[in-house]
């Protein structure tokens, strides 16, 4: 869980956070997580020292994330169009003839 990862990597001075990824519907872990560092030298040290070590009952495999800026600026500029809902016309009751 997040706490175990945090305790494991908090020995590095520039450690920021640790996050275990979970399935939204079941809440079970997906078997991977992310750890972030502010300093690249701590990242390199963690990759060298911690790769293959056991965290809990699992050996961990470390690699640098290939995360890129995920903001889609073109999608943000497009006007949002939603399909228009058809209004249901309720029949009028006849009180007088």
UniProtKB/TrEMBL annotation:
GO terms for molecular function: mRNA binding. Coiled coil: none annotated. Keywords: RNA-binding. Gene3D superfamilies: 3.30.70.330. InterPro entries: Nucleotide-bd_a/b_plait_sf (IPR012677), RBD_domain_sf (IPR035979), RBM42_RBP45_47-like (IPR050825), RRM_dom (IPR000504). Residues 1-67 form the RRM domain. This is RRM domain-containing protein. It comes from Aegilops tauschii subsp. strangulata.
């Amino acid at each position: 869980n997040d706490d175990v990862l945090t305790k494991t990597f908090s020995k590095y001075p520039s450690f920021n956070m640790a996050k275990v990824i979970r399935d939204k519907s079941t809440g079970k872990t997906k078997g991977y997580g992310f750890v972030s560092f502010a300093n690249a030298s701590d990242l390199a040290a963690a990759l060298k020292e911690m790769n293959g070590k056991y965290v809990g009952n699992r050996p961990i495999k470390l690699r640098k994330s290939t995360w890129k800026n995920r903001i889609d600026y073109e999608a943000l500029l497009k006007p949002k169009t939603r399909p228009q809902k058809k209004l249901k016309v309720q029949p009028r009751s006849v009180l007088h003839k």
